[in-house]
Specification:
Layout lengths: L3 E11 L2 E12 L3 E5 L6 H9 L6 E6 L2 E2 L5 H6 L2 E3 L12 H11 L4 H14 L15 H13 L5 E5 L7 H18 L2 E5 L3 H7 L2 E6 L2 E6 L1 H6 L1 H6 L14
Parallel strand pairs: 3-8, 3-9, 6-7, 7-8
Antiparallel strand pairs: 1-2, 1-4, 4-5, 9-10
Length: about 250
């Protein structure tokens, strides 16, 4: 199956320190894959490697069957692999609608149809009431959903989301969850979500990939990962009898 992003044996070393060690990962179109692990597990390094901001020391990255290991982030984006960052990078003085319309144009959309397509995306995220307001005037939770919609406007096949729920309250997280749940079916996109909010991860992801010390610890459904003793020890801090939990 070629409709996937694949990391194959990916390793990254920084001055002799192994940040990633022989990691294999697959993100398919139409699925939501969670990427979790303790602090320092290598999650951000892996996403940087997938998106082209970090060159792997070993291994290969493929997008829809093409080897993109040496491609720039911009070239990968044109091939359908797009990412967001923890800091939302909006054009604050432009309207919310125009922020998304620029995403449509960046993805090859027609100028005449860009604003209509942008409005449809805002409706998907329940942001249409903000369409004609400056992006700088939005509340924080709405701003984070806007950043995702602008990335989605570029028509990616795969979208990598770096802690989309960071700083959100419970209501805002629920609103974000509802948006993420619909995206694969409505837009045919594969989502990779780095997130510390386990309620969101367990509720929205089809599969979860767990890293620890730069290596894959487990891959499986939310229920499989939740029940895995190694994951519980590494991520939730649970100890085996007679041992101390990591970080305790």
């Amino acid at each position: 199956m070629n409709d996937a992003v694949r990391a194959e044996g990916v390793g990254v070393s920084f001055q002799g320190v192994r940040a990633l060690d022989a990691v294999d990962l697959e993100l398919r179109r139409g699925e939501i894959l969670g990427l979790i692990g303790p602090n320092g597990a290598g999650k951000t390094t892996l996403v940087n490697t997938l998106s082209g901001y970090q060159t792997p020391t070993t291994g290969r990255i493929h997008v829809d069957g093409r080897d993109v290991t040496r491609w720039s982030p911009e070239r990968r984006a044109r091939a359908g692999l797009v990412r967001t960052f923890q800091a939302v990078r909006l054009f604050p003085e432009l309207s919310v609608l125009d922020n998304v319309a620029l995403g449509v144009l960046a993805g090859g959309g027609r100028r005449k149809a860009a604003r209509a397509e942008a409005m449809d995306l805002l409706a998907t995220a329940r942001l249409e009431q903000w369409a004609h307001h400056a992006a700088a005037s939005m509340p924080y939770g709405a701003e984070r959903r806007l950043g995702i919609m602008r990335a989605l406007a570029t028509r990616p096949h795969y979208l990598l989301l770096d802690e989309p729920a960071a700083g959100l309250n419970d209501r805002e997280t629920d609103e974000l969850t509802a948006v993420l749940e619909r995206m694969p079916a409505e837009h045919g996109v594969g989502l990779l979500v780095i997130e510390h909010d386990m309620k969101l991860i367990m509720g929205v992801c089809h599969r979860i990939h767990v890293l620890d010390y730069g290596r894959t610890l487990a891959v499986g459904s939310p229920s499989e990962v939740r029940a895995d003793p190694a994951v519980r020890r590494a991520y939730y801090g649970e100890a085996e009898e007679g041992n101390h939990a990591r970080g305790a």
